[in-house]
């Protein structure tokens, strides 16, 4: 803690946060009581909020810039699941007193990198002190054309269930970071850890699937739990064919070493892939949309009449899955 | 803790939070990844976020419904300072594991009461667990006609400095709750405590002062600190005439018993009154606006050229004031 220079909050904001708001006139240079957010003509604003707590949602000791990017990305993933284009965000930092300036320096460097990557800007926020662990909240804003937001509620029997990227890397990556993932090489462990630490919000895919997907969600609670959310909201059931679930090479390696990890792949969370339902007639359009975004979109099951989510093995037998996961609202 | 029934988060949301979102179609029944927020035609959206930490921003043991209303009101006060009409809010609750259902019952009853009072609706949010104290964040949304938001940056030399209601009750009320306010009767202590616990966001006044006030802020950091924010943002100085600062009878009683409390009145915060600058030509309009809202609006000083805020006593001598206060951005 050689770097224990202490700026006051005004200094921190002026030095580290104000530059992050330069590109957004509605941020009012972070000098006012609130931000002005104006969707473009014909667009609806989409707003979501998500929180990371030190020691609960990220490992204590994680680099602040990595935490910052993860905080932004879990929020942007919610916008992706709505088919929204992100525009700006508010940041609410509740921090222990002993956070030093180097923390802000690194944290804001992470924000800066992802603002550039995703074309967004800081628009406002709040800082407060806590005797407890850091609680970091982002409220992210995006836009969709009126009536074109992707919702959880549109799934219909007969729809194909599709998922982007690969599933389970987030849950396995957390285990890799915790040192509890056995039988997996160093390179694969590093890959899985990076998937946990730096999720990839599927923003381009979400936008490309407007008018194509009938329902959408991002996988934060886990594949089965999140498909369950679609089913409950849409009043339908779903089946997943386990053999068709897309896995990374690293995840395959982990599963080969410990088949019981299948529960983590199906029931863990933190993948931040898009899970969508697509009517048969739109499957070609969905494939083209995924191609245009250079993202894999794999058919893993189907929407049916009824309630609940069933996972079937290669012989059509049901695989029992324990579902947990935090609930967002 | 007889009432230690535990619903899971889904149950809590369905039972307590979903009813609070019924009136707002963009909340999507709290079943989706994000909320849809659509300002009316010609309106700009105004967004602000503020956090209360248990034991830091409210006393541990405070009734949950009181905390909920205070949480909403400190955010609505920021919208009032922008001249915005509030519409909806997101709620981010980071809670210790031992919060029981009766907490949610009371907390949501507080939200319900103030949703009705202010014509707003819950639109979405997030719940997370923490090993630390509760961290409660609201992001509030409002609307103003394009170009009519009240900003901190418009003050000009010659403007009158005006404040709504009475000043210092918040800081004195906190002392009353902490049992450190001597020489004040029980009724006055109760009045001051209620001013701290249930601030009154001056929403109607903020809207009525559109096109009249040149600059505006709400008093959360303290009269002198917040006038300092206006001065810094507007590039001006200000003088306050201490004898003209409006005080409640209870505050007068406290000051009579302990004149040193003047520092708390000038430098404390939590009043959530509006502090505005008004050009001479608009003073009659400002008075009419305040009358129409049935709120006192008192002239307490003037904007001048230069930097900083000076407080003058009845003889024109400067009163030294220590300024602190949390910084919001």
Structural class by sheet pairing and helices of chain A? alpha+beta
Number of helices of chain A: 10
Coarse morphology of chain A: globular
Beta-strand proportion of chain A:
15-25%
- The neighbouring-strand order within the major sheet of chain A is 7-9-6-10-8-11-12
The low-pLDDT segments of chain A are: 1-5, 325-329
Structure summary, number of beta strands of chain A: 12
Order of helices and strands of chain A: HEEHEHEEEHHHEHEHHEHEEE
Q: Which two chains have the most extensive interface, and how many residues on each? A: A-B, 68 and 68 residues
Mean pLDDT of chain A comes to 94
Describe the oligomeric state of these chains in a short phrase. homodimer
Alpha-carbon distance between the two ends of chain A: 39 Å
Classify the helix fraction of chain A into a percent range: 25-40%
Largest sheet of chain A: 7 strands, mixed
Detailed description of the structure:
Two copies of one chain form a homodimer. Chain A has 329 residues and is α+β, with helices and mostly antiparallel strands. The first copy, chain A, has helices spanning 9-17, 64-81, 101-118, 169-178, 186-197, 203-208, 223-234, 249-257, 262-267, 283-293, and strands at residues 35-37, 43-53, 85-95, 121-129, 135-145, 160-164, 215-218, 237-241, 274-278, 297-304, 308-312, 318-319. In chain A, strands 7-9-6-10-8-11-12 form a seven-stranded mixed sheet. Chain A has a four-stranded mixed sheet with strand order 2-5-3-4. In chain A, α2 runs parallel beside α3 (101-118) and α4 crosses α5 (186-197). The two termini of chain A are 39 Å apart. Chains A and B meet through α1, β1, β2, α2 and β3 of A and α1, β1, β2, α2 and β3 of B. β1 (35-37) of chain A pairs antiparallel with β2 of chain B, so a sheet runs across the interface.
């Amino acid at each position: 803690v050689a770097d224990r220079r202490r700026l006051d909050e005004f200094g921190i904001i002026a030095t580290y946060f104000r530059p992050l708001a330069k590109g957004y006139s509605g941020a009012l240079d972070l000098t006012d009581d609130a931000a002005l957010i104006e969707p473009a003509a014909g667009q609806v604003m989409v707003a979501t909020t998500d929180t990371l707590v030190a020691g609960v949602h990220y490992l204590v000791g994680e680099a602040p810039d990595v935490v910052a990017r993860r905080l932004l990305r879990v929020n942007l993933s919610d916008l992706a699941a709505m088919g929204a284009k992100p525009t700006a965000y508010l940041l609410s930092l509740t921090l222990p007193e002993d956070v030093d300036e180097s923390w802000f320096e690194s944290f804001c460097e992470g924000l800066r990198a992802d603002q550039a990557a995703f074309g967004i800007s800081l628009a406002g926020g709040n800082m407060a002190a806590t005797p407890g662990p850091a609680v970091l909240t982002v409220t992210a804003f995006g836009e969709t054309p009126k009536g074109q937001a992707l919702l959880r509620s549109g799934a219909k029997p007969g729809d194909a269930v599709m998922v982007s990227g690969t599933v389970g890397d987030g849950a396995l990556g957390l285990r890799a970071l915790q040192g509890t993932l056995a039988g997996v090489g160093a390179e694969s462990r590093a890959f899985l850890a990076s998937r946990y630490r730096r999720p990839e919000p599927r923003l381009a895919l979400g936008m490309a699937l407007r008018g194509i997907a009938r329902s959408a969600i991002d996988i934060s609670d886990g594949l089965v739990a999140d498909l369950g959310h679609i089913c409950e909201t849409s009043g339908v059931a779903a089946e997943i064919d386990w053999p068709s679930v897309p896995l990374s090479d690293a995840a395959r390696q982990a599963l080969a070493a410990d088949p019981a990890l299948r529960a983590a792949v199906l029931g863990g969370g933190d993948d931040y892939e898009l899970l969508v339902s697509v009517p048969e007639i739109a499957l070609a359009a969905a494939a083209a949309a995924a191609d245009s975004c250079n993202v894999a979109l794999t058919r893993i099951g189907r929407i049916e009449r009824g309630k609940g989510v069933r996972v079937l093995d290669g012989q059509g037998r049901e695989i029992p899955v324990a579902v947990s996961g935090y609930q967002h609202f």
